[in-house]
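Hi R.,

Quick one: here's the L-alanine-DL-glutamate epimerase-like enolase superfamily enzyme sequence you asked about.
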Amino acid sequence: MKITRITAIPLSYRLPEGKTVTMGIGSTLKRDCIIVRVETSEGITGYGEAHPGRSPGAIVSLIHNTLQPLLVGMNATDVVGAWQRVHRMQLSSHGLGAGTCLALSGIDMALWDIRGKAAKMPLYELLGGSHRRIPAYAGGIALGYQSPESLAEEAQSYVAQGYKAVKLRIGDTVKNDVARLRKVRAVLGDDIDILTDANTAYTIADVRRVMPVLAEIQAGWLEEPFACNDFASYREAAKISPLVPIAAGENHFTRFEFGQMLDARAVQVWQPDLSKSGGITEGVRIAAMASAYRIPLHAHSSATGLNHAATLHFLAATENAGYFEACVSHFNPFRDMFGSTFQIGDDGCVEPPRGHGIGIEVDESIFDKYPMVDGPGYVVKF
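And here's the predicted structure, written out as tokens:
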């Protein structure tokens, strides 16, 4: 069974006026996603999701003009061989680095979808896992900068749905962050896990000021306080408080960058995104590295049900798996455009689909509703 064609389909959705969510990386203007379709000589089609990287047109071009010629004609079940070929011809030298990794992630996910469909097995079973319930937190583009009272009300609404954990966006001023953190903890009580994400907006000085408050409210982690390659700051932050683990990984690409993170001994929670870090093939390798050092793996989620379903399968087959990031964004039509991928239960858990492959039936007729709007999806004030 050979790969015959690879197609990238970019989709965009402009947020309604006044409905932006503001966080450390800026204020949202639109949501983007890239659906990757891989066709085969035996008529089996697989689908995956590539992260748009704030430049969806560039990732689409990379898939069509660079990666497709490398991979067409290869065995569609040879995910390791496909990954190695792209690594050799793009990632190892003279390539487009992170952009290639985003593009490859979507292709690799689609190839795993094909493998599952060909084997007539759900992905979690193909990966060696089982159908089980996975704890989830309320995340996605939500719980952004707003008044403490409004933020607490939003967080409370997710707890009412069944979530036992929520992720708050910090990285504003330390004063504002502290007020929001204390308010949410007071309203939710002590039984709900509060996770925090600075979206790379903090300095070391900010972390020194906010970390005692994170310890006070018993935060589950401080995610991405700094840029992904600022290992010096991560090492310094890890010394400030042993009570609050540092989390990162959604902007680290391939096991080699996670290896650098391991060497730094500064990040205690790993968060690979299967639509960014190199796909499912590389996600399995990253999970194995983390497992050897007893590092919990809480996978990051992207925009569509394809990523969400693939992530649930992956976590169901991962020994050191932690939370699933459930997208609770109010304005993300891509989450449910193929139907609901997950349902939060009273136990705060979700479970993977049972269908073959990723288990998502893709209806391409819906794509016409969301023509690509190229360019970044966030406005940032410098």
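The radius of gyration is 20 Å.

Cheers,
M.
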